[in-house]
Amino acid sequence: MSKIEINEDAVRKLAQLLEESGLSEIEYEQEGHKIRVAKTLHVAAAAPAPSASAPAPSAAPAPSAGGGDEVPAGAVVSPMVGTVYVASEPTAPPFVKVGDTVQEGQTLLIIEAMKVMNPLSSPRAGKVTAILISNGDPVEFGEPLLVIE
After folding, report:
1. How far apart are alpha carbons 79 and 143 in whole angstroms?
2. For the chain, how many helices (H) and strands (E)?
3. From the CB of residue 149, how many other CB atoms can be counted at a distance below 10 Å?
4. Is 45 exposed, middle or buried (0-12, 13-18, 19+ CB in 10 A)?
5. Claim: this prediction has a pTM higher than 0.70
6. Which of 33-37, 57-61, 90-94 has the lowest mean pLDDT?
7. How far apart are CA 33 and CA 75, in angstroms?
8. How big is the chain by its Cα radius of gyration, in Å?
9. Looking at beta carbons, which pairs linking 15-22 to residues 24 or more positions away fall under 8 Å?
């Protein structure tokens, strides 16, 4: 049986790409050799609920200079680029609707990135006051998806 040689530089570069892109896994294949790097996704997309005297800080990146759109207070933002799904399958009811009360850790939606389904969990308990995306929409890193107050 032949010994497998690991290209540590390639693994390090893939891990760096993983961090930079916000993906949960990446795979590379060359000359019949495949390298796959994956990590556990921990989503902390928004700040805790605001107190009555202070506005909520945003965990989202600043909007682009040309857009002028602001991230709403209490917004849960996308931790990655991908396609958003509001239910576990096309015929299933959505994970959440406007007006629903959610618990911290509850699944809000799924973001598909590179054929991997990544559940997005609620960063805090609260009431869903707005859903800013539709099923099947492409989303960008930092894009507001829904608002929890």
Report:
1. 8
2. 1, 10
3. 14
4. buried
5. no
6. 57-61
7. 42
8. 18
9. 21/80, 21/81, 22/79, 22/80, 22/81, 22/141
CA dihedral of 149, 80, 97, 60, whole degrees rounded to 10: 20
What is the token pair recorded at 106? 């509850």
| Rounded Cα distance, 45 and 78, in Å | 7
**What tokens were used for 58?**
């945003």
Q: Measured between alpha carbons, how far is residue 75 from residues 32, 66, 91, 132 in Å?
A: 44, 21, 27, 9
Q: Are 44 and 59 in contact (CB under 8 A)?
A: yes
Q: What is the pLDDT of residues 88-145, one digit of tens each?
A: 888 899 999 999 999 999 999 999 988 889 999 999 999 999 999 999 999 999 999 9
**The token pair that represents 6 in the structure block:** 């690991």
Cα distance between residue 58 and residue 55, in whole Å? 9
Give the residue ranges of DSSP H helices in the chain.
8-21
